[in-house]
Amino acid sequence: MNYQFTNDLAHAKKLDEKDPLAKIRDHFYIKPGQIYMDGNSLGLASKEAVASLQEMTKVWQDKAIGMWDEYFHYGQKLGDECGKLINAQKNEVLITGSTTSNVHQCVSTLYQPTNDRYKILVDDLNFPTDRYAIDSEVRLKGYDPNDAVKVVKSPDGKYIDEDAVINAMTPDVTLILLPTVLYRSAQVLNMERLTQAAHQRNIIIGWDLCHAIGAIKMDFQKIQPDFAIWCTYKYLNGGPGSVAGMYLNSKHFDKNPGLAGWWGNRDDTQFQLKNQFEHQKDVSGWQIGTPTMLGMAPLEGSLKLINEVGIDQIRAKSLKITAYLMYLIDEKLTIYGCKIGNPREDSKRGGHVCLEHPNGYQISLALKDYQVIPDFREPDVIRLAPIALYTSYQEVYQLVEILENILKNKIYEKYSNKRGLVV
Ligand SMILES: *Cc1c(COP(=O)(O)O)cnc(C)c1O
Q1: Is the CB of residue 34 less than 8 Å from the CB of residue 396?
Q2: Residue 417 — pLDDT band, cuts 50, 70, 90?
């Protein structure tokens, strides 16, 4: 979309006045004076999320073991709420495990290699944990990752070329795992196109939605991927290490879970505790052990708030506020050697702006001393995520003013280039 921005504070104020989501900010715990630009790594706590966590601790206090009468299907209930964000069918989404353990669960279930078809196709820009999981799943099935994991290389280290991915869908490939939004460059892949191309070749395809869910709109009933996995602590604001999400297409419900456990047993016979596993023929059949109730509870409040606003409004504001940030960078920061490292087209960019500068790491340290929380990704990327639910246009304006000061006066030179534990 073409927005009309001007580069003065009065304009930022006007954008806030006209922002239909401006009031949602009051639902979040925002540290006064701090500009939080890292909601794509760890979303802020909302009053709703904290309240539902407190409610769960109260349920534990009041009801003890009796709580299960009410909460036995909590993972499915929250899964259905989460599924609204991607238009999945009921019973196809579950809150369980971690992103990484859900990669293991889905791949161990769906990766059925044969002599002719045994390769898993991945890209070289996805978050590495997915690759670690894929490599180990390949090894568990007796293959060598050097042979059985086929990597589509990015031509420039920033973007994935969709045509190259499709060309790599050769007859020896049986499964594909790709990110929907790249964690560094924020590129959005065309899930529908790639899923269709995979299915035309009889290849199973799954998506990592970590940087997509809660940020962009997806229609799973239209796309019909085989599986998807995601974390809930980024744009879903579920809290540090909150329980992850998993989607399994209903066409796979008859398959045996790769990692079976008693919480995946049929509801009606689970407590008969038989030695023979009978899995529930919906996504809850892929639960393993007792659900992490305290790790899930904040999501209840958070998803309620997100669904009240709706992904359409969230995406509309996200596109506008990130466009505003890019506009200000173009206006004020490119003269200092800053580049925008994400796609410009609305359909091809996710929820954060990727600011590149050779001194990116030092700049990100300087930002912290000015009460801005960014995050840094190797080699030179400062990720800036103005979040639709809680970032104001005035904060974006102030952020760019602070960056301008740091760059113009070379304040970053005072900071060491040596990396910390969590960069
Ligand atoms: C954040 C992220 C993860 C994190 O995995 P966890 O198991 O939740 O720690 C995985 N994949 C992608 C693409 C991510 O952005």
Answers
A1: no
A2: confident
Contact 102 CB / ligand 1 (< 6 Å): no
Beta-bridge partners for 46: 28
Say how many Å lie between the CA of residue 87 and the centre of ligand 1: 22
**Ligand 1 center to residue 206 CA distance, Å?**
14
**Residue 183 CB–ligand 1 contact under 6 Å:** yes
Q: Other C-beta atoms within 10 Å of 311: how many?
A: 21
Distance 181 CA to ligand 1 centre (A): 12
* pLDDT tens column, 262-310: 999 999 888 888 899 999 999 999 999 999 999 999 999 999 999 999 9
Token couple for 69: 């009468």
98 lines ligand 1 (CB under 6 A): yes
211 Cβ inside 6 Å of ligand 1: yes
**Structural domains in the chain plus CATH codes:** 9-30+310-413 (3.90.1150.10), 50-308 (3.40.640.10)
As a whole number, the mean pLDDT across the chain is: 97
Helix (H, G, I), strand (E, B) or coil at 137: helix
Q: Kindly report, residue by residue over 354-398, the tens digit of the pLDDT.
A: 999 999 999 999 999 999 999 899 899 999 999 999 999 999 999
For residue 368, the CA-to-ligand 1 centroid distance in Å is 24
CA distances from 314 to 44, 172, 207, 236, 343 (A): 15, 40, 21, 12, 19
The C-alpha atoms of residue 5 and residue 42 are separated, in whole angstroms, by 29
Residue located nearest, by CA, to atom 6 of ligand 1: 99
Residue type at 406?
Answer: I
At 323-341, the pLDDT tens digits run: 999 999 999 999 999 999 9
CA distance 327 to 7: 8
The CA distance from 263 to 270, in Å, is 7
Band of pLDDT at residue 77, cut at 50, 70 and 90? very high
Q: What SS3 state is found at 200?
A: helix
Mutate to test the pocket of ligand 1, among 134, 178, 180, 183 (most ligand atoms within 8 A of CB): 183
For ligand 1, say whether the CB of 177 is within 6 Å of any of its atoms.
no
Report d(CA 207, CA 218) in Å as an integer.
11
Q: How far is the CA of 267 from the centre of ligand 1 (A)?
A: 30
Please give the distance, rounded to the nearest whole angstrom, from the Cα atom of residue 399 to the centre of ligand 1.
27
**In what order do the strands lie in the sheet containing 375-377?**
339-340, 353-356, 381-384, 375-377
